Design the sequence.
C-alpha cells in the first residue's frame, strides 16, 4: 500500500502571506522518515471556507490517505481549523487528538488549549496539528505509530465495499 500525505499550513488571515514553511517542512521530514510520500504542501489563510476547500481538494482531487493541517487550533477568533475540519468529516477519531494533547502536556502546559480534532472523510484520515514547529512535530510523533494502521484499515474497508 502506498502511504500518501498532504500538509496544509493554516495561517492567521491577518498576516497570511503563504510563507512559513518551517512547520510543513518539519512534518514532511517526519512523514518521509516513516515511509510516507508527501504529495502536497499548501498554505491557506485561516478562513473557514478556504480551509474546507483545501482539505476536500487534498482528500478527493489528490486522493491523499492522510491530510494534516497545522495551525488555527488555538483559542483566538481566527482559529477556525477544527470547525472547518468538522464540517467536512464524516466521523470523528477522538483518540488521535487525545493522544497528541496528552503527549504535549508533558512538555508544555498550554497544549491543553489546543482544539484540534481528527476524523475521516471517505478514505482519508484528517488530523489537525498545532501551528508551532515543536508542537506540530511532537503531536505527529505521538500518533505516528497509529496512522498507518488507521489508513490501512480505512482503505481496506473501502476496497471491500466498492
Sequence:
Amino acid at each position: 500500500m502506498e502511504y500518501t500525505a498532504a500538509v496544509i499550513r493554516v495561517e492567521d488571515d491577518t498576516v497570511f502571506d503563504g510563507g512559513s514553511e518551517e512547520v510543513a517542512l518539519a512534518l514532511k521530514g517526519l512523514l518521509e522518515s516513516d515511509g510516507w510520500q508527501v504529495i502536497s504542501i499548501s498554505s491557506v489563510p485561516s478562513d473557514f471556507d478556504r480551509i474546507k476547500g483545501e482539505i476536500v481538494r487534498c482528500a478527493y482531487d489528490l486522493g491523499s490517505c492522510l491530510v494534516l493541517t497545522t495551525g488555527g487550533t488555538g483559542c483566538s477568533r481566527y482559529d477556525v481549523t477544527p470547525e472547518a475540519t468538522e464540517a467536512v468529516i464524516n466521523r470523528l477519531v477522538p483518540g488521535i487528538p487525545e493522544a497528541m494533547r496528552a503527549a504535549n502536556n508533558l512538555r508544555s502546559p498550554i497544549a491543553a488549549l489546543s482544539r484540534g480534532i481528527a476524523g475521516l472523510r471517505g478514505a482519508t484520515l484528517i488530523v489537525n496539528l498545532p501551528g508551532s514547529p515543536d508542537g506540530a512535530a511532537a503531536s505527529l510523533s505521538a500518533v505516528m505509530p497509529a496512522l498507518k494502521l488507521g489508513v490501512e484499515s480505512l482503505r481496506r474497508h473501502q476496497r471491500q465495499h466498492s
About this structure: The first helix runs from residue 22 to 33. The domain at 4-92+111-140 is CATH 3.40.980.10 (Molybdenum Cofactor Biosythetic Enzyme; Chain A). The CA atoms of residues 140 and 161 lie 30 Å apart. The two ends are 17 Å apart (CA to CA).
